[in-house]
Amino acid sequence: MYKKIISVARLAILLLGSSTMLFTACNSGASKTGDAANDSTAANTVKIGVLHSLSGTMAISEVSLKDAVQMAVDEINAAGGVLGKKIEPVIVDPASDWDLFAEKSKELLTDKKVAAVFGCWTSVSRKSVLPVFEENNGLLFSPVQYEGEESSKNVVYSGATPNQQLIPAADYLMSAEGGGYKRFYLLGTDYVFPRTANKILKAYLLSKGIPKENIIEEYTPFHHQDYQTIVSKIKKFAVGGKACVLSTINGDSNIPFYKEFANQGLTAATCPIMAFSVAEDELRAMDTEFLVGHLAAWNYYQSVDVPENKKFVADFKAFCEKKNLPGGAKRVTDDPICWAYTDVYLWAKAAEKAKSFDVDKVRAALHGLTFDSPAGAVKMDDKVNHLAKPVLIGEIKPDGQFSVIWKSQGLIDPQPFFTLNAKN
User: Distance (Å, rounded) from C-alpha 159 to C-alpha 389?
Assistant: First the structure.
């Protein structure tokens, strides 16, 4: 069953001060089923949109997602395309500007007439474009973990839901195996995902017996660079022992945060950071000497030892070298890169199954679809556009890679609307 967002991004941002804000409602209104899809194909091509920030604060994370989409397109085209047509990507740069995301998405759907769009890292960018996709019955593939509390028929959420990232990470840290931590500093960038994620985390920690005074919340704006005062507060907080940081800092602010953390003498041994938005690609821009031992929770790491992933990693490095992309053969893969790549294959496979590029037909064909992704076999939920996938907790190594120190047993079904009564 689908639910529709009634608040546009601008309203959502204004209401972020209220921790009770949820972005749900039912889909309604006239459908423009298939309009974009019918116009998206020429005689020998089918257009798709690529909507990732290639400049601005989020470029550190999103440029590689554009590269992953392009690699998948090249592979599919080399194998004959989709329904006999070659994929033609239309790449735009919303430049880490949330209003521009909405403008560019409308351009892709109404002017460029693309069959599907692949993009959006931050939740505020996704919420900015959501009304555009619902009004025009477009189909957005969003590859990055998110806070839940949303499910739209016009979005395919291949990133993790809270029960596929946030909750397993908290459980691990509270467990004897994870260190038995009892004090949590929730630090994030000031926008939708961190605030909603921390609302969920705080409620969950309280339900597990963590005292309210043992949970601190703090936020910084996008592109924040001075973490001296905040890290000083974390250092004081950690003096009591059994303290850790749950970080939802996004974009290039992670670089000064981790650097200041080390500058003030804090380490993974004294106060580990569990990150929800830092992966191998972000680590390329950091001095890993100061990061060793800190943690992250994702559904994929470059170190995943399956044949599909070994090929994927080798192919991505070769692709970046061949295209003369920055970093070349030294480029790395990570969780969002994995799902950005997988999304193109899911769409292509669904179109082949539906024998059509029509949005409604492709969406129906997605349900129950399985795919051998770089993370291993995954499955689209039978009712909503979310993936069932494994959960992994990794520890940063000196080379900027992760050692997997915990893994879920089998695939974890998505719960876009998390409740404490749900089976976790």
Answer: 9
Nearest CA-CA partner of 375 in 344, 349, 328, 411 = 411
Start and end residues for every CATH 3.40.50.2300 domain found in the chain: 9-160+313-388, 163-299+391-407
Residue whose entry in the numeric block shows the structure tokens 């929800």: 276
- Secondary structure of 25-75 as H, E, C letters: CCCCCCCCCCHHHHHCECCCEEEEEEECCCCCCCHHHHHHHHHHHHHHHHH
The C-alpha atoms of residue 365 and residue 116 are separated, in whole angstroms, by 14
Q: Is 413 helix (H, G, I), strand (E, B) or coil?
A: coil
Report in angstroms the alpha-carbon separations of 154 from 23, 126, 267.
15, 11, 43
Alpha carbon of residue 230 to chain centroid: 25
Question: What was the pLDDT predicted at 182?
Answer: 98
Residues of the chain with pLDDT under 50: 1-38, 422-424
Query: 10 Å Cβ neighbour count for 221?
Result: 10
- If one counts every other C-beta atom within 10 angstroms of the C-beta of residue 59, the result is 19
Q: Give me the CATH topology for the region 9-160+313-388.
A: Rossmann fold (3.40.50)
What six digits make up the tokens of 353? 């199954």
254-272 pLDDT tens trace: 999 999 999 999 999 999 9
Distance, CA of 303 to CA of 306 (rounded, Å): 9
CATH architecture for residues 163-299+391-407 = 3-Layer(aba) Sandwich (3.40)
CB-CB contact of 273 with 249 (8 Å): no
Q: How many CA atoms lie within 13 A of 264 on its CB side?
A: 19
Indicate the residue type of 85: K
CA 408-411-412 angle, to 5 degrees, is: 80
d(CA 111, CA 282): 34
CB 153 within 8 A of CB 418: no
Q: What is the largest CA-CA distance in the chain?
A: 67
**Which residues touch 397 (CB under 8 Å, ≥6 apart)?**
288, 292, 403
